[in-house]
Amino acid sequence: MQGLTKRQEKVLDYITSSITERGYPPTLREIGRHMGIRSTNGVNDHLRALERKGYLKREDMKSRALRPVNMEDKKQSDTVKIPVVGRVTAGQPVLSEQNIEDYITVDRFLLGNTKEVFGMWVNGDAMLQAGIHNGDFIFVKKQMFAEKGDVVVALLGDNAAVRYYHPERDHIRFVPANSNCSPVMVRRQDFLPMQLLGVVMGVYRRL
Length: 207
Description:
The chain contains 4 helices and 11 strands. By secondary structure, the protein is α+β, with helices and mostly antiparallel strands. The protein has a 7-stranded antiparallel β-sheet, with no helix packed on it. It has a two-stranded antiparallel sheet with strand order 1-2. It has a two-stranded antiparallel sheet with strand order 3-4.
């Protein structure tokens, strides 16, 4: 990138601080007042120079669409695209192509440093008393092990079910959080590691 003049640096800094503090960029008039530039044409000259030198992006000529390139790069790095899994079939990896229905982009803050994450829509009220409702969207960390008491997604029969995980000597209990539902008991020798699809990390609910 080409270097900036002091005036161009000041314009770029003002746009960046406005987005950071208010969540949106300044208008041309606000930039003009801050810089002591009387005409919007004068402001546009600086903006065009910042665009030409690769420091600024904007959609058409809209001042509200201004975004410094360094903030654009940060915005992209702060998000992650995760697969949305639909019906899972026994014998198939959970993230196989035929199981993925869509992708969504979420803030990386919600997932931390976890890499293998997928999302699923909850069907049923088996975990109602744990705060997981029918129609909720859950974030699941893909793994084939869990600790006792974890909320997991497991392939039980033909369905991916959300339950508490309770391993015992001869069997594993998959326990619901709803007094109207019964636990599912699976003999240890009948439960394969790949049937444990992952551990629930979080829940998203539309209000």
